[in-house]
């Protein structure tokens, strides 16, 4: 909850309180400097950019530059823009009734100028929270100059005002965000003739409204996002506009699996339901993250479109949902995702990748291959390889283990307990205090990993699988 606004309620009280008017760029610079001096990043909640994007962003803001973030989908560009609101002062005074957050010391709209001229120090002052000083527009081909800058209001004209009267203007989103931060998402989608209308905003810091000789100063920081031009093909940023942005910062996907796991843990909606508790074993969370990392290096996937972190988030939620669904059907108190639950990620992945050459069933096979790659990688990294020789020897001696998404966790515990070598390997992976659902998850990972490593045979029918000696 925001704190209460400061006390001054008139221009005179504001002046007596010693309030000093500064530009929004200087306000942001001051607050960025304070965060850096305190050892804090400029923006919170953005992981994986600590040594790349964040330093460039801090440099741009300290320089007072307008910024464009360039990157593929799902690289936290919009999150960064929305986090910038935290760099504004919590409260800012405005002329009461102003549509464009007029500075009481430097009013620019006709309404505010007339009010200050008439009332002087008795001009009423209102306080605007920083959350109301951030504006955002998703660029679409039908966005108009009237949407962004403004237009003559026919209702005000019909009320008797002259067209030349500044009070007939209906202000667009840009001037209404005066003394704040205005963000444009997917800037290339904005028609080129509309982009021209932003040239003055970036360079001369004013807006021109059609039919008026008025050139109204605006005090704002303009930030934008864009996908690479070679992918979108829906439009481009005109050269004069691109030239006016002080900084173009390239975003990227997480370079480390651990970072992707941390982002998923932060963003995914993972809760139990219907009295069933949910626990996601760390190896399963890692498999989900590795699927996305493998996709980003796959030659069968169009890398220009990228593989969004949203794919990892959706996949984690989907796998968790599959385990919850099983636990609810079986009446188990704890749900833990298993390798067999990874079949469910097909639905949450195919819409988030674009394959290079689509054949019948091509997307499904690509996803299955990504899953197999991820399971094998995590198996090799996490499972105690030295203990697995004894496990394979038990299977060579005739042991057979059945698994499946419909089997109870108790059946897995029983299967593991019947095999000394398998029980030891499961305990090393899941921990001695692992609960039945977590034992089931570890057991499936061990068995599937041994199969993918070509050390066990697998016979799969109708979702269930039987593991035996090769």
Description:
The chain is of the alpha/beta class and 470 residues long. It folds into three domains: 11-250, Rossmann fold, CATH 3.40.50.300; 253-382, no CATH class; 384-470, Arc Repressor Mutant, subunit A. 43% of the residues lie in helices and 14% in strands. The chain has helices at residues 11-16, 24-37, 53-62, 77-83, 110-119, 145-148, 154-158, 173-176, 192-195, 199-203, 229-232, 239-244, 257-267, 282-295, 309-330, 345-349, 362-382, 385-396, 409-417, 420-430, 436-452, and strands spanning 67-70, 91-95, 125-129, 134-138, 150-152, 169-171, 180-185, 206-208, 215-217, 220-226, 247-250, 277-278, 334-335, 401-403, 457-461, 464-468. The strands form six sheets. Strands 4-7-10-1-11 form a five-stranded parallel beta sheet. Strands 14-16-15 form a three-stranded antiparallel beta sheet, covered by helices on one side. Strand 15 (457-461) and strand 16 form a beta hairpin. It starts with 10 loop residues before the first helix and ends with a strand.
